[in-house]
Automatic annotation (TrEMBL):
It is found in: Cell membrane. The lineage of its organism: Bacteria, Bacillati, Actinomycetota, Actinomycetes, Micromonosporales. Residues 1-19 form the signal peptide. Residues 47-308 form the ABC transporter substrate-binding protein PnrA-like domain. Pfam families: Bmp. Its main location: membrane. It is a lipid-anchor. This is ABC transporter substrate-binding protein PnrA-like domain-containing protein. GO terms for cellular component: plasma membrane.
Length: 351
């Protein structure tokens, strides 16, 4: 998960580019990277097929599902076909990618960075006539055969913590909980940045982090949430995949402040959320698909999404007051204007 992993390294995208699919990065506009011949019908068989591989449950009502839902909706509008496979074991990533190429897909899309071991297939003969879309929240090397899409998790998680801090101030809460899957680089970064965000407003805020070992195991998520509730947390961030709703429903039973791991669920009534943290991989992918359809999706380039500049990533309060919303917007804008350096804030406040 990315989640959480998230895509998430050199071209900034404007709001206009998001709407039109046009590349706003000067280097890309000047011809950086390469355009696969015949795009979107890269293999020239008269049809367009998109293949999607996800490490998680593609029916999780959240991060993993959003990627597939956006792909299917876009494909329907164009008369394309989507071949999808969820819950791909990391050890099987490379073979799964080869299998997609054997089915003559024109675009291979990796749903999260856990499946980075699939990338070597992009340089193999079996995948010679394919384009590749890869989200990058880690140090995935740029190669001529793939397009990388990235953002900075420090940005979204710092602002998520700041948003939680606004609600914590209102309730007089100083202790929060963070429940996630395996202890990996990106989950550690997310937890640390979230804590730093809270401490922007509440210097003595504490964070209890539990690595449950699995993003989708509802039983483990509930057990971890219950343990944190017994320690008096007033906030729960379920930085999870398929287990998000199970953990959040339990947190709702004690009226804890809750946040989403990637998607906008402010309208959800069961469970309910107080903050939507938006780094939805489906939104990023939809822009790439728009470019792909127009024959403009270049391989060998990286696209960076900037909080406070682009529409995503972003954070919103589901029921914030005017004052709270204004403070959150100003904080995000300062990051976009580089008045606030998220990495420096995390280093200073996240210890």
């Amino acid at each position: 998960m990315a989640i959480v992993a998230t895509a998430l390294l050199a071209a900034c995208v404007s709001n206009d580019a998001t709407a039109t699919g046009e590349v706003s990065d000067p280097s890309a506009a000047a011809g950086a990277g390469t355009l696969p011949a015949g795009e979107p019908d890269v293999n020239g068989d008269g049809k367009v097929v998109v293949g999607v591989l996800s490490p998680g449950d593609i029916n999780d009502n959240g991060y993993y599902e959003s990627f597939v839902v956006k792909a299917e909706a876009f494909a329907r509008s164009k008369g394309w076909t989507v071949i999808k496979r969820g819950s791909v074991p990391i050890a099987d990533a490379l073979n799964a990618a080869r299998a997609l190429c054997q089915q003559k897909v024109d675009l291979v899309a990796i749903g999260a960075t856990e499946l980075k071991d699939a990338i070597p297939a992009s340089a193999e003969s079996v995948c010679a006539k394919t384009a590749w879309y890869v989200p990058s929240s880690a140090n995935i090397p740029q190669t001529p055969e793939i397009m990388l899409s990235t953002d900075d998790p420090n940005q979204s998680m710092l602002v998520a913590g700041y948003a939680a801090g606004l609600l914590m101030q209102e309730r007089g809460v100083t202790r929060a909980g963070f429940v996630t899957g395996p202890e990996a680089d990106f989950t550690v970064v997310a937890s640390t940045a979230f804590k730093a965000g809270m401490r922007e407003l509440i210097p003595d805020a504490t964070l209890v982090t539990t690595y449950a070992g699995d993003f989708n195991d509802s039983g483990k998520a509930r057990e971890a949430t219950q343990a944190q509730m017994s320690q008096g947390v007033g906030v729960l961030y379920p930085y999870l995949g398929g287990a998000t709703d199970a953990a959040t429903a339990l947190a709702n039973s004690k009226k804890l402040i809750t946040l989403t791991p990637g998607t906008d669920r402010c309208a959800s009534t069961g469970p309910t959320f107080d903050v939507s943290v938006l780094f939805d991989p489906g939104d990023y992918f939809e822009v790439a698909l728009t470019q792909f359809a127009a024959g403009q999706l270049r391989m060998g380039v990286t696209r960076t999404w900037q909080l406070g500049v682009d529409p995503y990533p972003t954070v919103k309060l589901c029921h914030g007051t005017a004052e709270q919303n204004a403070k959150l917007a100003a904080f995000s804008a300062d990051i976009g204007a580089k008045k606030i350096d998220p990495a420096a804030e995390v280093k200073k406040l996240g210890a």
